[in-house]
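Re: your question from the hallway

Yes, I did run it. Sequences:
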Amino acid sequence: MKKIHIAALIMLAIAIGLLIMSSQQLSSFSTFQQAQDSGARVKVSGQLSKTDPIIYDPEKDPNYFSFYLTDESGETRRVAIKQGKQRDFERSESIVVTGKWNSDYFEATEMLLKCPSKYKNEELALRNQVKVSAVSSQQ
Amino acid sequence: MSDIAYIGEHLWPGRVGHMLVLLAFVSALYSAYAFYQQHYKSDVSWQPLARGGYWVHSISIFGVIGLILYAMTQHMYEYDYVYRTVSDDSAMRYLLAAFWADQEGSFLLWMFWHCILGLIFMYKSKEWAPVTMITLALIEAFLISMLLGLYLPFVSEDIKIGSNPFVMVRDVFDAPIFANADYLSLIEGRGLNPLLQNYWMTIHPPVLFLGFASLSIPFSMAIGGLSMNRHKELMLPLLKWALFAAAIYGLGILMGAAWAYEALTFGGYWAWDPVENTSLVPWLILVGGIHTNLIARATTYSIKTTYAYYLLAFVMIVYSTFLTRSGVLGDTSVHAFTTMGLESQLFIFLAFFILLSFWKYYKGGKDIPRRPEEERIYSREFWMFIGALILLFSGILMTFATSLPVYNKIVEVFDPNHIPIAIDDPMEHHNRYQLWVGVFVGIVSGLTIFLRYGGRLWKEHARKYFKQISIAIGIAVILTIVLGQTIEMLAWQHYALLFGGLLVIVSNLGYLLFVIKGQMKMSGAALSHVGFGVLILGIMYSGLNKKTITSSPFVQRDFVEGQAIDRAVVLIKNMPFYTEGYWMNYTRDTLIDNLRHYRLEFKKLDEEQEVVDEFVTQPTALYNKDFTKIAALNPGTERKLWYDVFTAAAPNEHLQDIEIAKAVEDSLKYLSYLIMPGDKIEDSTWILDIGTMVFDDTMLEDDHNTPSDSSAYDLTVGLPMIFTHRRSGRKYEITPGLGLKDAYIFQFPKVIDELGIKVKLGNEVFGAVYTEDNNLQYTEIKLQKGATIKWNDYRINLTTFNPGGQHQNYKAESGDIVVGAILEITHPSGLQSRVEPLFVLRGSQQFSIKDHDPLTGVHVRFTHIDPKTETMTFRIAADDRSDQEVEILIASDVPRSDILIVEANIFPGINLVWLGCLMMLFGLSLSLWAKRSLKQGS
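Structure:
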């Protein structure tokens, strides 16, 4: 066996080792109940509960944001994250939060929004839409 | 619906275009077949046919591109692709960006470069052209098949092959509007996503796709070369094309990184996003292949490995195409295209080239001569090979992590209850592993450069070698210790990385200066390696020394596990804010087209609190075209030589999106005050003095609005008022107002951010100042030119006539005889104004156009002209303003509009990142240039 093959084999072994190691960094999706029971860092996927309050008041704290998420088992719990509110938050189809359970709410450190696909589900854009400005409201 | 005769549609570009797509597909296949005949049957008579086929294919592709561009410039919204990417107000300078913004256009861009490269290659490289062109034409056939738009009836459902770029919008959407034959006059294109309206979108894709396309050449040569048994001769042209591909492809990736750094608010140039990763992997493998290719040229070792690398590099590009375009990545990437519904077709594309590569490699690989003896451990090729393995290894790790969504999909097929898994923190994950790739590449290339191929004259050379690397290692160790003080090292691994980066710089610079003594032709490799080391330094400085100066000072760093830090602060307009040695002041914002610039003024202080530097950053907000929403927030960056100050800013939420603005408006609780102008309202926090009505359009100015056009309103009313803050005594003058247009009333409320209040006028205010015509009491008056008459308390003077006068309520028709009378009206208060009612003769009819003066409240009709006496008859009335009580609505706890949520980061050494990358690319280009004159076999 050539030395170069030995070197290649060693690297292959390291690669496999690293991949096995990194598999421990994987988190799987779970529900709020599972997150509460395990206390582990997990991902929870769900939908924004639009009837519950969405709290983001940048004048008080631009780095605090809280909302209610209904997970896939249908359970709605409060989620808080220390970061600003993401744009298009209300338009999201589903939300994935990563974090862990903290006494009475889910403390997230990361949040991913899935937004509706850009074109297909929307109506045709029509000409001569009434121009409305972002502040003045038409009555 | 097909029986409707649609108005205004242009059908010919679609018909011609689709025909050209079909022709391009057929001619690509034909050309592949003809080149096959020429090469494998050694029948030279096929050559013109094969070349002709490729010409037909290329011209068809150019034609398709030209037709789409033409349809785009003509705004032919009947075509879905045009509808998706162009709108009425699209700027011509984004035409190309819009063309390749979506799947079909980017496929065409890729094919375009294959055509250009193929046309050059088939004439320039006589020996390798036929065998290479077979594969290149096959790649083209696969790519154009993505645009075929053919439906094959199969069992009960239709199978779609490709998505025709000329598909019509009425075939895509099923909407009632298409029952209207004139639907085209009603629809407007959606236009290019504002995020992509950017010069990077014009230059990044063509360079990247030229990189993709030029990698197809070494791949196609490798596929062909494996069956030709002329391996040694092939190594030089392979190397040249690989160098070209690596330089262009690398430039494409670098542009993407620069774009991300410039435009995205996450603050960085690389996010380990799946699309970024899958485009980096082929490049890494390509660079690995260049190293084995150099070995193969110098020693005839590693020929087989070189083929393997080039085959793999292309397969990884196809894999990346599959990932980004099939929708498999879903929401894990910001780059993913909207899906075309071609998952199976993309999969066949991938599978075909994987199988072709394996088959050719297995079949041809057996015949490649192998050198019986082993590489010597002190030879250059041994360690270069190790380096190439490390690059491959890096690519494998990255690919596995990026392929988790694919793994999830596959497992789901067998186990529908499978819970998808994902990497917890991709940034952290990749940084942790790729760090070691950086360390080893640095060390290996640092130690290898002084070795000789074949270990030639090792006995004589060994002493010198060990001396050279001892010096290099020594300098690198010292520099690691010194520079380590200037970087916030978080772990011992970072010292290893710093050492790796410095060693590669020191030894390659040494090699450049003392061994080859700066000879340009030989310095490509060493320069690239130095560039790699500089890149490592740049990554370390910008990554580890990155400082968020807007974070709260008590939290030291942001890596504390599970503990996010406060990244942003709120700046109030014109209230300077001090943080971490900087005064920041948000002074104003300016709207230019649909881009709002927020001006942030910085003053840097030294330890004695003296101002040492002043600069301005301008983060921006890009609105969508109807100003209902901010489409993108772009950072503003101050570039210094050694560090960048990177600022991202967002206005308060209700200013970002009209939906949120409406929700906020609905949640406000207005208190209603009925009051006479000139009166006073007292609240516990403020005193309000009301002025008297104004009728000009001053209140339309609103710096948070799109500029309003005052002439758009029939009547405007404003009520100036002064709020006095009780505690501070500060006074705030505002003029909330109303605008009347047709039957709509538009509100122009005013906000006083310091008091947190919003003020608007009740809609009935118009009623208080404007009386409907049928409630007016008209009086008839007769006047001669120049005469003055008293009517009630008004004085009315008929100043002069204006033949052919105009009025907004009068539409002239031919044959009309029009006279305007100009009357000067003096209000009892002394206010003066002019009105100009019209008298119109249309045939035998005569009628009058009333004029109204909002200031004095006078309505005047011009009803009769007596030519004999030159006496004019007018009917005059005045608004009933006796009951002038108006409604003022005041809401408190209103969100401020004058705040900006700002995150500011200091990026030291970001220029080292760019410098390092450019040096690598320069080195690659230099190597290519140095080989330009080499002939085969040399």
